[in-house]
């Protein structure tokens, strides 16, 4: 391992240390990078109400770490600044005695005394470990391993902020860190936590925005659309137009057997984790939901929907973390519809207010619904402008799980009936987040009989 590798390891581990500090739950209010002390031993320091609560030092070397090295650095760190907690990161290879010492310190705190621990700690000032928390981590330098650690830390941090990023975006940031110093010296002055997080999130956003993979187009149509000949003959075009009469499924076809089954076979045979995709859908909302459910986050597929918008035409609805925008949230209205029933109805009023039509349909169809979960966007109301972009759509889709989380156990085991007037991009994201919904029955609005407010069941999910 050359000197440049050691320096790179320091950058990686320094960044990980900061991310861990942001997610470890400690109520610190100021952070220092290259904290000024007489001995210059503290690389990262956390402070609360003008008192140090944690000191971190990162050591990276091309040589082998020895037990005497580790003991000396630990003594120097503890004597350099008074703190209730210390952490020493060693990037490189430790000899056997050093590894045993590191394990022995951990055993000491866990009160797991054995002969190996007693022998290793003999002659070491145990007073340094008492009445304070001391942690030592040794990680052999491996670029792929460090990027994995950064990815995991980034994912935890982003999750704690209620944000979402693709694996590919996080991977891109992890790979960029060694060349784009996302942490730097605070010049001994320290930075308030909120200011530091703003800076960090800006850096993450700037790097993430550079990630723009070339996307392969996929088309799924159940309505006539102007897909060109190249698209139709690409092998990535699926059309159901022959199975529909207007917007209604022809009598000889079944939504699950002939529509969902074909979507599943088509999508899963045409996507992989090595490529990125954009999905065009001139299709029923049930088809968009089904596509998202098949390509959920656990699939590892980098795919986003293309959405027709009133202002910008058709655009990629991808996710932009830490965008700084204030997005409207659902207003959730829970209503008991019928007593002693377990099925629930989820009503999503995005582009149109459909609540009254849904209730009328449920009455006419004699649906045995116990609870209605009515979701409204109060800021703009039900309009074509209710959802701003892909990030907004994803956040709203994520919030639905919370909206239905209050169902009783018997309701969760029963069927969730989903009625929606919403963009297909949103329905795709909702499908991606639907694996925890339980049994679902989707519905399509019969536009051919608009005056009668008629719905028809479409795809049903029982797993």
Task: Provide a descriptive summary of the structure in words.
This is SMODS-associated and fused to various effectors domain-containing protein. The chain is an alpha/beta fold and 463 residues long. The protein folds into 3 domains: 208 residues, Trna Endonuclease, Chain: A, domain 1, CATH 3.40.1350; 101 residues; 131 residues, Rossmann fold, CATH 3.40.50. 37% of the residues lie in helices and 25% in strands. The chain contains 14 helices and 19 strands. The strands form 4 sheets. The protein has a 6-stranded mixed beta sheet, with helices on both faces. Strands 14-16-15-17-18-19 form a 6-stranded mixed beta sheet. Strand 2 and strand 3 form a beta hairpin. The longest helix is centred in the first third of the chain and has 21 residues. The radius of gyration is 28 Å and the shape is elongated. The two termini are 51 Å apart. The model has no long low-confidence stretch (mean pLDDT 87).
């Amino acid at each position: 391992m050359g000197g440049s590798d050691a320096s790179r390891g320091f950058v990686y581990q320094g960044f990980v240390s900061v991310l861990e500090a942001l997610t470890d739950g400690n109520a610190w209010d100021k952070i220092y990078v290259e904290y000024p002390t007489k001995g210059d031993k503290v690389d990262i320091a956390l402070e609360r109400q003008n008192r140090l609560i944690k000191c971190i030092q990162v050591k990276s070397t091309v040589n082998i770490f020895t037990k005497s090295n580790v003991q000396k650095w630990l003594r120097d760190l503890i004597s350099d600044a008074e703190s209730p907690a210390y952490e020493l990161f060693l990037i490189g290879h430790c000899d056997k005695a050093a590894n045993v010492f590191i394990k022995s310190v951990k055993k000491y705190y866990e009160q797991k005394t054995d002969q190996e621990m007693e022998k290793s700690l003999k002659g070491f000032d145990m007073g340094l470990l008492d009445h304070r928390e001391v942690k030592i981590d040794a990680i052999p330098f491996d670029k792929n391993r460090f990027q994995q650690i950064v990815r995991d830390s980034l994912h935890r941090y982003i999750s704690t902020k209620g944000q979402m990023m693709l694996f590919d975006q996080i991977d891109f940031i992890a790979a960029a860190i060694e060349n784009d110093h996302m942490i730097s010296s605070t010049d001994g002055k320290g930075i308030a936590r909120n200011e530091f997080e703003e800076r960090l999130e800006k850096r993450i956003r700037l790097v993430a925005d550079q990630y723009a993979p070339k996307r392969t187009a996929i088309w799924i149509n159940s309505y006539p659309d102007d897909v060109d000949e190249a698209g139709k003959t690409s092998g990535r075009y699926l059309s159901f137009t022959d199975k529909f009469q207007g917007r209604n499924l022809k009598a000889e076809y079944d939504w699950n057997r002939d529509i969902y089954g074909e979507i599943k076979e088509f999508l899963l045979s045409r996507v992989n984790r090595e490529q990125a995709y954009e999905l065009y859908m001139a299709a029923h909302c049930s088809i968009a939901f089904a596509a998202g459910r098949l390509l959920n986050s656990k699939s590892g597929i980098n795919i986003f929907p293309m959405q027709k918008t009133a202002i910008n035409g058709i655009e990629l609805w991808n996710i932009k973390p830490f965008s700084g925008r204030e997005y409207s949230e659902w207003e959730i209205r829970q209503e008991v519809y019928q007593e002693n029933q377990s099925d629930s109805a989820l009503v999503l009023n995005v582009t149109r207010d459909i609540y009254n039509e849904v209730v009328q349909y449920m009455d006419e169809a004699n649906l045995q619904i116990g609870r209605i979960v009515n979701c409204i966007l109060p800021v703009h109301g039900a309009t074509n402008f209710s959802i701003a972009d892909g990030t907004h759509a994803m956040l709203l889709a994520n919030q639905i799980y919370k909206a239905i989380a209050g169902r009783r156990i018997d309701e969760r085991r029963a069927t969730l009936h989903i009625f929606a007037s919403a963009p297909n991009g949103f329905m795709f994201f909702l499908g991606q987040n639907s694996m925890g919904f339980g049994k679902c029955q989707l519905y399509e609005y019969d536009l051919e009989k608009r005056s009668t407010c008629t719905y028809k069941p479409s795809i049903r999910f029982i797993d």
